[in-house]
Amino acid sequence: MTTNKQQKEHIIIVDDDPAVGVIAEATLADDNHRITIASDGETALRLIESTPPSLLLLDVVMPVKDGFEVCQELLGDSRQQRFPIIMITGLDDEQSIERAYQLGVTGFITKPINWVVLKHQIQFVLRAWHDRQALSESKERYSLAARGANDGLWDWNIKQGYVYFSPRWLEMLGREENELDGLLSNWIELIHPEDRELFKSELNSHVADHSDKFELEYRIKDTEGRYRWMLCRGLAIRDKHNRAYRMAGSQTDISEQKSAEFQLMHDALHDILTGLPNRSLLMDRISYSINLLQRNKKAYFALAFLDLDRFKTINDSLGHHVGDLLLQRVGERIRDLLRDTDLLARIGGDEFVILFSEFHDLQSLISIVERVRSKIALPFEIEKNVMRVSASIGIAVSEGQYSRPEEILRDADLAMYRAKESGKNRFEIFNPDMHQRANLVMSIESALHSALENDELKLYYQPIFALDTQKLVGFEALLRWNHPQQGLLLPQDFLEIAEESGLIVPLGRWAISEAIGQLQTWRNTISELDDTYVSINLSSKEFSQNDLTGYIDSLLEHARLPPGSLKLEITETVLINNFERAQAVMSSLRNRGIDLSIDDFGTGFSSLSYLHNFPFDYLKIDQAFVKQLDKKLKSQSIVKTIVSLAHNLGLTVIAEGGETPQEIECLRELGCEYGQGFNLAIPRPAEQVVLAL
Q1: Of 402, 430, 458, at which residue does a domain stop?
Q2: How does strand 385-387 pair with strand 533-538?
């Protein structure tokens, strides 16, 4: 493409004197100029319409249409001037000159024409015209770019102390032109008080050449009194002494972007369901409290770890929607009781944590926790459902012993579990013994995994006899653990931990399989044991497994043993956890011919109701009532009542714990059909049971 510098400038000369045209062509026509002559105004207008010139040299006095009339038509409408006009005339009166300039002409030259001067004047006018056009185009491009970027512009004349604000800059704030009077101080007054000093500091730093550029996000007030977020950028122009004399820049409204950022940050640090702070924000605040305590030895803080009791039951029975609403309501109740300095977080499921950041008095802290616990225990009415829920709460207090937030949260969690173990709907304060127990639990849990893998578990069998004939009728299988370091461990040393960790399920499955396999071996090899059975205890978690009956069926079928050869002992704890499911599972087992026994009768809270509602075959009297039975009339009366009750319900009675011949005889006289105890036979490994027969 050919540039403007390479193109010839087209000049139209309009004059009714032919000599002017001849001289003009001779003087002006060269490599840079192309000359066209018109003898009158009408002809000139036609030429201009068909081939617009780069410059028009126009005589004033002409026939048909004079120069003023031509200018009137060319420049009198609203169209932008397309080219410069130089008027040539013999008139030198001020009125004609004034009229020419009012019509918009670019230059004025009188006759007689000095052609050398005119040539240089034409060159100057064309060069100035092109520069003006380029500047205009540049401004237009800049204006379009600024409007496209939706930015407001500002220009600060530092020496004069005046700031220019573009219409878009003012529009962002709902303000009119000149409303700020071009004063920097008026601009600064609109900035949010929290951002004002930073704005001035950054601006002055750039003016003083301490920073390469000025760039800042800040808030500024609009005419409705709202603060909008702006991104302001600027750059200073400096003189030869590096002193800033002018500074210009742009301003972009980033309120929507900031709102989205704040929302993302809020979502990242808050629980979606309740709107409460989540674990991330909680841990950050705990870290701050730890650091503060390291600087101020009296800035104690505390955590309360809350876990809702029976929440799973509500969730399962009424649905997750009601459960979610309940969690929201619980959060609202707790929050209403706390101070502004406290922080309540939901860290997952039905677990809440309160950070008491200004804690000085343990008794005051306990009072707040008790109010929280009592408030949670009040009834909730959600979608026409009235429900109650309680909370087990663990408290951990920091007096400088923690260096990481995970440590105090762990200790509060341990205290909460102790509260659950102690009966729920209560609080416990952490002490180091809990940590030692937690380490012990972890150690035992890990060792139990190894015990299953390394065949360290073993069953001991205690014979059960008919008290009237002394005949052996069965065995109770009792779990033992040959610990590599601690030796033989009894169930009370590890079963509670196995229950907590869920390992009780694989332990129980192993024990049932081992017991049935051992009974099969005995029946196949020892005729005296043809009619014996094996009895084994079922834990709560084992009982809740969906495939329990199928698993037992497959074991009995594989061993080719009748269902009556297995008896299952069930404690009240199993029945408490899920009443309806317990009824269904027990009925299924009973229908298969497997006998069921209620274990440790008399030690629970609702034994009589269980006897009435569940299909038991046997009742086992706890050894606490059998101990010194021959010497305690009260115990004899209790055992007699239990035996009578069991017989009236069609149940067979087994007494455990007969340690002396007198106790065994007393049990027989009171009507107990069967018994087990050290006086009759001690628990032994399978291989020793055979030798003792």
Answers
A1: 430
A2: unpaired
Same domain, 572 and 516: yes
Alpha-carbon distance of 279 to 366, in angstroms, equals 23
Contacts of the segment 163-167: beta carbons below 8 A, 24+ positions apart: 163/187
pLDDT tens track for 657-681? 888 888 889 999 999 999 998 888 9
Is residue 396 within 8 A of residue 430, CB to CB? The reply is yes
Contact yes or no for 688/666 (Cβ under 8 A): no
Q: What is the pLDDT of residues 441-460, one digit of tens each?
A: 788 888 888 888 888 999 99
Specify the higher pLDDT residue, 576 or 625: 625
Rounded to whole angstroms, what are the CA distances from 75 to 36, 53, 604? 21, 14, 111
pLDDT, position 6 = 57
Q: According to the model, what pLDDT value does residue 499 have?
A: 83
Q: Please indicate, yes or no, if residue 63 is contained in any of the structural domains.
A: yes
What is the percent of the chain where pLDDT is above 70? 94
Q: Which single residue is written with the structure tokens 């674990």?
A: 279
Token pair of 451 as six digits: 């015990």
Whether the upstream peptide bond of residue 685 has omega within 30° of 0, thus cis, is no
Structurally, the chain folds into a number of domains equal to 4
Are 106 and 210 contained in the same domain?
Answer: no
pLDDT at 2 over 70: no
Q: Is 659 exposed, middle or buried (0-12, 13-18, 19+ CB in 10 A)?
A: middle
Domain around 455: 447-692
Report the SS3 class of residue 396.
strand
Q: Which residue shows structure tokens 């127990």?
A: 437
Residues 425 and 411 placed together within one structural domain of the fold: yes
Token pair recorded at residue 361: 């008095």
Instruction: Identify the pLDDT of residue 308.
Output: 95
> Tokens representing 610?
């269980």
656, 620 contact by CB (below 8 A): yes
Secondary structure of residue 282 in the 3-state scheme: helix
More confident residue, 195 or 600: 195
Beta-bridge partners for 270: 277
What's residue 248's pLDDT?
92
The stretch 60-75 carries a mean pLDDT of 83
Task: Assess if residue 78 is contained within a domain.
Answer: yes
The pairing of beta strand 472-483 with beta strand 457-466? antiparallel
* Residues 455 and 316 occupy one common structural domain: no
Which two tokens mark 680? 């009759």
Average pLDDT, the chain: 87
Higher pLDDT, 139 or 540: 540
Tell whether 251 and 400 lie within a shared domain.
Answer: no
Domain at 560, CATH number: 3.20.20.450
Q: What is residue 81's DSSP assignment?
A: P
- Cα torsion through 550, 556, 559, 565, rounded to 10: 170
In a domain, 390, yes or no: yes
Query: b/e map of 53-63 (b: 16 or more CB within 10 Å)?
Result: bbbbbbbbbbe
Tell me the backbone φ, ψ of residue 587, rounded to 5 degrees.
-65, -40
Structure token pair of residue 215: 């760039």
Task: Map tokens 């192309």 to a residue.
Answer: 34
Q: What is the CATH number of the domain that holds 334?
A: 3.30.70.270
Separation between Cα atoms, residue 53 and residue 47, nearest integer Å: 9
Residues 397 and 484 in one domain: no
pLDDT single digits (tens) 283-335: 999 999 999 998 888 889 999 999 999 898 888 888 889 999 999 999 999 99
Contact (Cβ atoms closer than 8 angstroms) between residue 459 and residue 515: yes
Of 132-141, 223-232, 234-243, 635-644, where does mean pLDDT reach its minimum?
132-141
As given in the structure block, the two tokens for residue 426 are 């209560």
